[in-house]
Specification:
By secondary structure, the chain is mainly alpha-helical. It has one domain. It is built from five helices and no strands. The longest helix has 30 residues, at about 30-60. The radius of gyration is 19 Å and the shape is elongated. The N and C termini lie far apart (about 45 Å).
Length: about 110
């Protein structure tokens, strides 16, 4: 749900707000409060859902733990002022890693023999 809300917010921010600014500038002046509330709700539901999903994925070992743990720390790093520059590449690496593990077949955690 959070990912859908975040996508919708991004789409509206890219296409709707500039069109309104061009054709109805008086309406855009009243948007910031409503847009900020939508941004906050979308942001926290997206990052909260991402954090919980990947934490449970890492705990249960459904997919590779290290890839899921990378995605657990991405929302945390993203709230650091310039953490976005580190969080986005980490998210990309972990998504590629998770996608590759799904593509190659069922994931089975390796057990160490003591």
């Amino acid at each position: 749900m959070g990912a859908g809300m975040w996508t919708g917010f991004g789409w509206a921010d890219v296409f709707v707000v500039p069109a309104l600014g061009k054709h109805a500038p008086q309406l855009v002046n009243t948007l910031p409060e409503q847009m900020n509330m939508g941004l906050i709700i979308s942001l926290f539901s997206f990052f909260g859902g991402m954090f919980l999903f990947n934490l449970l994925t890492a705990v249960k070992g459904i997919l590779p733990r290290w890839a899921a743990l990378l995605l657990v720390i991405v929302p945390i790093i993203d709230f650091i002022p310039i953490g976005n520059y580190l969080a986005q590449p980490l998210a990309g690496v972990s998504f590629i890693w998770l996608g590759y593990s799904l593509w190659k077949g069922p994931y089975k955690e390796e057990t160490r023999v003591s």
